[in-house]
Amino acid sequence: MVLAGGGSTRFGGVDKAMLVLDGATLLDRVLAATAGAATTIVVGPTRTTYREVDWTVEDPPSGGPVAGLAAGLQRGKAPVVVVVSCDLPWLTKDDVTLLTEGLGEYDGHGLRDTSGREQQLATAYRRTALAEAIRRVGDPRDKSVRRTLAGLDLTWTQPTRAGDDVDTWADLDD
User: Fold this and answer.
1) Residue 156: inside a domain, yes or no?
2) Domain residues for 108?
3) d(CA 174, CA 154)
4) Is there a smaller number of Cβ atoms within 10 Å at the N or the C end of the chain?
5) What is the pLDDT of residues 122-153, one digit of tens each?
6) What is the DSSP string of the chain?
7) What percentage of the chain exceeds 90 in pLDDT?
8) Segment 104-117, tens digit of pLDDT
9) What CATH number does the domain containing 32 carry?
10) Domain annotation covers residue 171
11) 112 found inside a domain
């Protein structure tokens, strides 16, 4: 599941998913990293991408990432769901494999960014655990991702560039 529905407010309203870095949009870079998935659901407005994906939007639109997670979980059936945001331009197929292989008996296995911050939107989750966390929150609109997922048993990688997201123009220069 790729979350690509944010307003990109720190980019002055520019569609962050469609920003180009080294010849590919941020969204296409993440889609290349997740190309091995049985199904790829992108939560956000339909855009032109290099490969076929299943599109959906959160209800209500612009309801935030937890609403996006809830919408994305309505699609697909895989017992393991890799959740990534569209602003992870350094994510690779190997990183996605690391997430799924590191899951073990945990509810989720995620990336840490280079500063050591845990990235809940760069994590492989057990579908049942993720769905239960969202069910517990009730209306997912404008809910905190960290609070929603706080009760899950998560494990994390060592800090890695793959976990660095792009929140500002300066992040693209790193």
Assistant:
1) yes
2) 2-165
3) 28
4) C
5) 999 999 999 999 999 999 999 999 999 999 99
6) -EE-----GGGTT--GGG-EETTEEHHHHHHHHTTTSS--EEESS----SS--EEE--SSTT--HHHHHHHHHTS---SEEEEEETT-TT--HHHHHHHHHT-TTSSEEEEE-TT--EEEEEEEEEHHHHHHHHHHH-S-TT--HHHHHTTS-EEEEEE-GGG----SHHHHH-
7) 83
8) 999 999 999 999 99
9) 3.90.550.10
10) no
11) yes
Rounded to two decimals, the pTM is 0.94
Report DSSP letters for 48-86, one per residue: --SS--EEE--SSTT--HHHHHHHHHTS---SEEEEEET
Instruction: Name the residue with tokens 């660095």.
Output: 164
